[in-house]
Design a protein that fits this description.
The protein is mainly beta. The chain contains one helix and ten strands. About 40% of the residues are buried.
Length: about 180
């Protein structure tokens, strides 16, 4: 799937979830992107972007971040500017991880969780994490550069049982 025939330009990944029930520790989810070199698209990420970082060239960054969900729609947003991303990169994988502060949590424990990927006004993907309810982290989407240099998007819903740090190391691995 591509974003409309000319490849993808600026894409947003938006995340929502409801806050914890009264008296429980906050539920904290994060969007994470891993960028891979064109000559090794399934190797180690060249860099990882999350709530506390951005890409070295500013082409991938968090424009909105939440540590509690707040319940006001999409409270966390990552912007990916593919038209500006260096040709040295050929693949970007985006996922969501649940912080495990206050005990183990899975997507099944998160109320009203959901993620959308949009390109301009066009929604490219929407998911509610139901297929990965037992996971603590999940990949959502993979972006790849084709032979002409255009970026394409591919749904990549895969669950993982790992914390955010381990997830960044394994999220780009080929599917078993």
């Amino acid at each position: 799937m591509s974003g409309g025939g000319q490849g993808l330009g600026k894409v947003e990944v938006r995340l929502r979830w409801d806050p914890s029930p009264y008296g429980e520790p906050p539920r904290h989810l994060d969007i994470i992107a891993a960028t891979y070199p064109a000559d090794d698209p399934h190797g180690r990420p060249a860099y990882v972007v999350h709530y506390d970082s951005r890409s070295p060239d500013g082409t991938i960054n968090m424009s909105r971040h939440s540590e509690t969900g707040m319940g006001f729609g999409f409270v966390e947003v990552m912007v990916l500017e593919f038209e500006r991303l260096s040709s040295a990169f050929g693949r970007v994988v985006v996922g969501v991880a649940i912080h495990q502060d206050g005990g183990p949590r899975t997507f099944g424990d998160i109320s009203n969780g959901g993620v959308v990927v949009v390109h301009g006004y066009q929604q490219l993907l929407a998911h509610d994490f139901s297929r990965v309810a037992d996971a603590t982290a999940a990949t959502v989407v993979e972006f790849t550069r084709d032979s002409a240099g255009s970026w394409e998007m591919h749904e990549m819903i895969r669950g993982f049982d790992s914390d955010p740090v381990l997830f960044t190391a394994e999220m780009g691995n080929p599917q078993p």
